[in-house]
Automatic annotation (TrEMBL):
Binds 2 Mg(2+) ions per subunit. Belongs to the ribose-phosphate pyrophosphokinase family. Class I subfamily. The active site is at residue 195. Residues 7-123 form the Ribose-phosphate pyrophosphokinase N-terminal domain. One of its GO terms (biological process) is purine nucleotide biosynthetic process. Homohexamer. Pfam families: Pribosyl_synth, Pribosyltran_N. The gene is prs. This is Ribose-phosphate pyrophosphokinase. It comes from Sedimentisphaera salicampi. Keywords: ATP-binding, Cytoplasm, Kinase, Magnesium, Metal-binding, Nucleotide biosynthesis, Nucleotide-binding, Transferase.
Length: 316
C-alpha cells in the first residue's frame, strides 16, 4: 500500500472505471460517496467516510454531460470542505471548457477562467489535470496546478509498436511543439500540415511542410472532437504518398460526426487514453486502442500527498 489512512480518494460518476484503476494502483479502497438526483433533477452528494483532517482527492472528468459532471465535482468539493477535510485536490483528467480560453470575438466569455474560479470558490486547494489544451490555463487558477501530460503513456505505446519509417505529422501549426517532442522521443521525422478552419466543425488542410512519401504517419493531438482536423490531414498525407496513418489523442471526445468521419477517412488506427470513458458506439465503429493514465495519475496523487516532485513523471 502506497498511502496511509490519512488519504481518501473519491470518484465522481463521470469515469468510475478509471477511479477503480487509480485506487488499484495505490492499493486503497475508493472513498464512499452517495450520489443521486432529487426528483427535480438537482444533484445530491453525501460523503460516507470520515474525512476530518484527511488529504482528499476527487477524480472527476468534466466530459459529457459536461455541466452535470462539473456541478457534481463542485458539490463534492463543497461537501468535503464542510466535512473539515484538510486538503482537497480536484483530479480532473479531462478539463471541460478548456478551449474557451480567450476572447476571440466581441461579447464572448472566457469560460476556462470561470470554471477555474468556480473550483477555487467551491473549496479546492489544488488541481491535478492532464493536457489542459493550453499551458496558460495554469495561470487561470489562484491555487497550485499540477499539469501532467499523457506523453509518457503514448510514447511508450508508439515505441512498443516499432513503427517502420515513422514521420510525426503535426495536424496544425499550433501543435508543432508537441509534435517536435514526439519526434525526439521515438526517433522520427517531422512534417507540418497547414490547415484552414472553415467553421466550428469543418477544416480544410491546404498543404504540408516536410516529406511523408513512403512513410508511416503518426499524428498526435491533445483531443479528438469532431475529427475534422485529423481526417482532413490524413487525406492530405495520403495524397502526398504516405503509407499507414495512425492518429492519437489524449482525450477522445468523438463528438457529432467524428465516428463516421474516421470510418470514411484514410486513418488506419486511432489511439486515445481513458481520461474520458469510451462510448460503445465508438468502440464498435472504429479501430481504436485505449491506453490507461491510471498509473500516471495514481503516482501523481501519491507524490502530491507526500509533497514530492512530480517533474520526473514528465518526459524531458
Amino acid at each position: 500500500m502506497f498511502l496511509n489512512e490519512s488519504v481518501k480518494v473519491f470518484g465522481g460518476s463521470a469515469n468510475p472505471e478509471l477511479v477503480k484503476k487509480i485506487c488499484g494502483y495505490l492499493g486503497v479502497t475508493p472513498g464512499g460517496a452517495t450520489i443521486r438526483r432529487f426528483p427535480d433533477g438537482e444533484k445530491f452528494v453525501k460523503i460516507d467516510d470520515n474525512v476530518r483532517g484527511k488529504d482528499c482527492f476527487i477524480v472527476q472528468s468534466t466530459c459529457t454531460p459536461v455541466d452535470g459532471n462539473l456541478m457534481e465535482l463542485l458539490i463534492m468539493i463543497d461537501t468535503l470542505k464542510r466535512a473539515s477535510a484538510n486538503r482537497i485536490t480536484a483530479v480532473i483528467p479531462y478539463y471541460g471548457y478548456a478551449r474557451q480560453d480567450r476572447k476571440d470575438d466581441g461579447r464572448v466569455p472566457i469560460t476556462a477562467k470561470l470554471v477555474a474560479n468556480l473550483l477555487t470558490a467551491a473549496g479546492a486547494t489544488r488541481v491535478l489535470g492532464i493536457d489542459l489544451h493550453a499551458r496558460q490555463l495554469e495561470g487561470f487558477f489562484d491555487i497550485p496546478v499540477d499539469h501532467l501530460m499523457a506523453e509518457p503513456v503514448m510514447v511508450k505505446y508508439l515505441r512498443d509498436k516499432k513503427i517502420q519509417k515513422p514521420v510525426i505529422v503535426s495536424p496544425d501549426v499550433g501543435n508543432v511543439k508537441t509534435a517536435s517532442r514526439y519526434v525526439s522521443h521515438i526517433g522520427a521525422d517531422l512534417a507540418i500540415v497547414h490547415k484552414k478552419r472553415l467553421n466550428g466543425k469543418d477544416v480544410h488542410s491546404e498543404n504540408i511542410i516536410g516529406s511523408v512519401e513512403g512513410k508511416n504517419v503518426v499524428m498526435v493531438d491533445d483531443m479528438i472532437s469532431t475529427a475534422g482536423t485529423i481526417c482532413s490531414a490524413a487525406k492530405l498525407v495520403k495524397k502526398m504518398g504516405a503509407n499507414k496513418v495512425i492518429a492519437g489523442a489524449t482525450h477522445g471526445l468523438f463528438c457529432g460526426p467524428a465516428v463516421e468521419r474516421i470510418q470514411e477517412s484514410y486513418i488506419d488506427e486511432v489511439f486515445v487514453t481513458d481520461t474520458i470513458p469510451l462510448r460503445e458506439d465508438v468502440r464498435k465503429g472504429i479501430n481504436v486502442t485505449v491506453l490507461s493514465v491510471a498509473e500516471l495519475l495514481g503516482e501523481s496523487i501519491k507524490r502530491v500527498h507526500r509533497n514530492e516532485s512530480i517533474s520526473s513523471l514528465l518526459l524531458s
